[in-house]
Design brief:
The structure is a single chain. The protein is mostly beta strands. It contains one helix and five strands, in the order E-E-E-H-E-E. The chain has a three-stranded antiparallel sheet with strand order 1-2-5, with no helix packed on it. The longest helix has 7 residues.
Length: 72
């Protein structure tokens, strides 16, 4: 892995840097992830909170429970 990874949202308002290796990948096929991706689900990277830094913008909090998901 490079020394850090960078990314952000599609509109460019949020940017972030990850300074440690990705610990795991998790796939989700709940209806919320299907709706958000426009496909059969999403794949999400698990990283330590210490290695994740927002470098531009401010995020909002959104909490929800997965529905119709096969993984628990």
């Amino acid at each position: 892995m490079p020394s850090s990874l960078t990314g952000g949202c599609l509109c460019g308002a949020i940017r972030y840097t990850i300074s440690a290796p990705i610990a795991a990948l998790r796939a989700c096929h709940c209806t919320n992830c299907q709706r958000a991706s426009g496909s059969g689900g999403t794949v999400n990277a698990v990283v330590s909170s210490d290695s994740f830094k927002i470098t531009k913008g401010a995020t909002k909090r959104y909490d929800d429970s997965a529905t119709q998901s096969g993984a628990r």
